[in-house]
Amino acid sequence: MTEIIRIERLHKIFRIGKVEVPALRGVNLRVEDGEFVSLVGPSGCGKSTLLHVIGGLTAPTSGRVIVDGMDLGQMSDGLRTQLRKKKIGFVFQRFNLLPTLTAWGNIALACHIAGNRNGNSRAEMQAVIKMLGLEARMGHRPYELSGGEQQRVAIARAVVNRPKIILADEPTGNLDTENSELVLNMLCELNHKFGQTILLITHNPEVSTFTDRIVNMRDGHILES
Ligand SMILES: Nc1ncnc2c1ncn2[C@@H]1O[C@H](COP(=O)(O)OP(=O)(O)OP(=O)(O)O)[C@@H](O)[C@H]1O
Ligand SMILES: [Mg+2]
């Protein structure tokens, strides 16, 4: 198997005035291409911070992050942004859809941002929308959708460009059991069908049983399994 994410001795210290908050304290992690990994641990242990650093949204204080063979610390901001657009799809707990755009508009915007202007992007969008059971909702704005539907639109948006890596921060945190299962089944299907690597944060032990491997975090560290 090939390695798609490698993290070495990663530290992140947030500074608020004179106060230092160490969020990551020497994290080492390897994720193989195509793996579905869940990241679990108590509130405040650094899960979201780790995901944001992997996705190039937050700069680490020290340490190395290598994504698909590229060392984020050695890249310019512009290149890092390109890498994020092309290779990474984010799904957040709060769906973060643009309220003025329809479901279709939200997904199409993601295609556009990734520079996906080739002829098959429309077909690609339709395939993803069908897979997520959203065909009848494309003309709706986010406030006209249920929480589960909004999250499925957010997933469609994250995966439509077939990013190699999907980073999901508690994507089922705001959903009821039925919708949580639906969303997780979707993620499993994407992982199986397209071999996309998924890193999923969850508080729910049942959710982590869906995944290939569970990574446990405490106080900015990853516990040895
Ligand atoms: N932008 C920030 N500025 C200052 N401190 C921060 C910032 N983001 C996170 N922290 C702190 O870093 C630590 C780790 O936060 P993080 O959001 O990564 O935790 P988490 O494991 O995702 O928690 P939760 O399960 O509650 O989402 C916490 O102590 C938090 O207060
Ligand atoms: Mg978090």
Topology, pairings included?
Blueprint: E1 3-16, E2 19-32, E3 36-40, H1 47-54, E4 62-67, E5 70-71, H2 77-87, E6 88-91, H3 103-113, H4 121-131, H5 147-159, E7 165-169, H6 177-194, E8 197-201, H7 205-208, E9 213-218, E10 221-222
Parallel strand pairs: 3-8, 3-9, 6-7, 7-8
Antiparallel strand pairs: 1-2, 1-4, 4-5, 9-10
Helix pairs in contact: 3-5, 5-6
The protein binds adenosine-5'-triphosphate and magnesium ion (MG).
Q: What do these coordinates show?
A:
The structure is a single chain. Helix content is 34%, strand content 28%. By secondary structure, the protein is of the alpha/beta class. It has one domain (3-222): 3-Layer(aba) Sandwich (Rossmann fold). Strands 6-7-8-3-9-10 form a 6-stranded mixed β-sheet. Strands 2-1-4-5 form a 4-stranded antiparallel β-sheet, covered by helices on one side. It is globular and about 50 Å long. The model has no long low-confidence stretch (mean pLDDT 90). It binds adenosine-5'-triphosphate and magnesium ion (MG). Residues 14, 16, 21, 23, 43-49 line the site of adenosine-5'-triphosphate.
